[in-house]
Amino acid sequence: MSARLSFQGIAHQYDALLALRDFSLDVGAGEVVCLLGPSGCGKTTTLRIAAGVERPSYGTVAIDSRPVAGPGVFVPPEKRGVGLMFQDYALFPHLTVLDNVKFGLHQLPKDEREPIAMRALEGVNMARYARVHPHMLSGGEQQRVALARAMAPNPRIMLMDEPFSGLDNRLRDSVRDEALSLIDQSGASALLVTHDPQEAMRMADRIALMRKGQLVQLGTPQELYYRPVDVQAAAFFSDVNICGGTVSGGLVTCALGSFPAADFEDGTRVDVVLRPSAIDLHSAGIGVDATVRRARLLGEESLIEVEVGGHDALLQVRIRGTWLPAEGTHVKASADPERALLFEKATDA
């Protein structure tokens, strides 16, 4: 059965560094939540506190409403019913694959460990490697063994710290899909740390976006991508183009045209944020004048950088298919108002 994992008012300090501040989050039973953010934002510290590897300086951690860390309470990792999976696999080189998986079952009677370990290896298609040592395996195979070891005790909560970042892109997709399938089959809840927004959107039911030790935004992948809380949150999920203007008559006009701004009072300075796919280029017609400065093929789409009068930076535009206009080509640029993200400009900007 899955379990709920709750953080309430967590703060944690390393000497003079405040790694987490007033962090609260609930992971529902059977839910997959990704902690997403740049390096140093507190993701791994949060996971280590959940695992019991770190004691929080303040606040409470609870599993199914039972405190496991907090004032006067600390339940050790082995008694929390959690599975751990790390970026570096953490396999014992002197043990066989089977013995590595059995190691996570040390609390069970000896005669029960091997059948359970073999079933876990079968679940990740690694049973045929049971008698070999980890150094004989590829990175993807070692990660599958690490997954089997974490899942073998049938944990109620899985904690995963950048577990796929060491794999190449194609292998990463298959291994994380296997991991997600196993977690779903087991019914476990999962908390995954990643700095990769695509991985978070691919795996998570909800994403917890972190910045400087705090929770910035929590929601579904769709909510964070299409309704980011600020410019930085929008830019974390993709490249963005930003042009500024002042609201007048319910519109904000910038270098790329006019956009509805009914939610802002006249006179408000606003940043209009457009992802590269929200801008269209045409050889003629409606739009603002633009000049191509560079065009590159990215496979199924082209990345075209254009210069627009009144805008001091090149705009990035992604076009489906192959279109590579020469440098200096004059085009028309237009943007879909419904895909524009508007934010009040910060007072210190």
From TrEMBL:
One Gene Ontology term from the biological process aspect of the record: quaternary ammonium group transport
According to the entry, every stretch annotated as the ABC transporter domain falls at 5-237
The alphabetized UniProt keywords are: ATP-binding, Cell membrane, Ion transport, Iron, Iron transport, Membrane, Nucleotide-binding, Transport
Q: CDD domains annotated for this entry?
A: ABC_Carb_Solutes_like (cd03259)
| Record-linked SMART domains | AAA
Which Pfam families is this protein grouped with?
ABC_tran, TOBE_2
Mind telling me which GO cellular component terms the entry cites?
ATP-binding cassette (ABC) transporter complex
Picking any one GO molecular function of the record gives:
ABC-type ferric iron transporter activity
- InterPro entries per UniProt: AAA+_ATPase (IPR003593), ABC_SmlMolc_Importer (IPR050093), ABC_transporter-like_ATP-bd (IPR003439), ABC_transporter-like_CS (IPR017871), ABC_transpr_FbpC (IPR015853), Mo/tungstate-bd_C_term_dom (IPR008995), P-loop_NTPase (IPR027417), Transp-assoc_OB_typ2 (IPR013611)
Out of the domains of life, which is the source? Bacteria
State the similarity comment.
Belongs to the ABC transporter superfamily.
Q: What is this protein called?
A: ATP-binding cassette domain-containing protein
Q: Give the species this sequence originates from.
A: Pyruvatibacter mobilis
Write the lineage as a comma-separated list. Answer: Bacteria, Pseudomonadati, Pseudomonadota, Alphaproteobacteria, Hyphomicrobiales
